[in-house]
Amino acid sequence: MTDGVNWLTAEEQHAWRSFVxxxxxxxxxxxxxxxTESHLAAAxxxxxxxxxxxxxxxxxxxxxxxxxxxxxxxxxxxITRMIGRGLVAREECREDGxxxxxxxxxxxxxAIGAAAPLHVQxxxxxxxxxxxxxxxxxxxxxxxxxxxxxxEDA
Length: 154
Known about the structure:
This protein is mainly alpha-helical.
């Protein structure tokens, strides 16, 4: 059953598990800080960031789901909850009548405006300040390369 498996070496396994542990702990800490300091879930923050990244503050549900690597049903349910809290609005797509847009509201802009400085400060103190400039460039290069590879498979 395990014939032909290219098992990880001890060094590879250490690197992989260290990376996973880093990711889990960092995301967990950032999520906790967002929730306690700004009352936004990490998922709310991710949606709002994606909406503020575009000048008009609106994106199709399917494009937003793709950007966040979410299933369509998760996106729909989450946007519905955010609509209920006044952070986003739903707009029907006039062009094809099938799709819908998530649109950031004034309350959503206010929420992301309050949360972003706290988030940036936490990212800096928990992560970026631990790296040298060279390590940061290397990390960026590695991240871009891996994401490009993942995008090839999408």
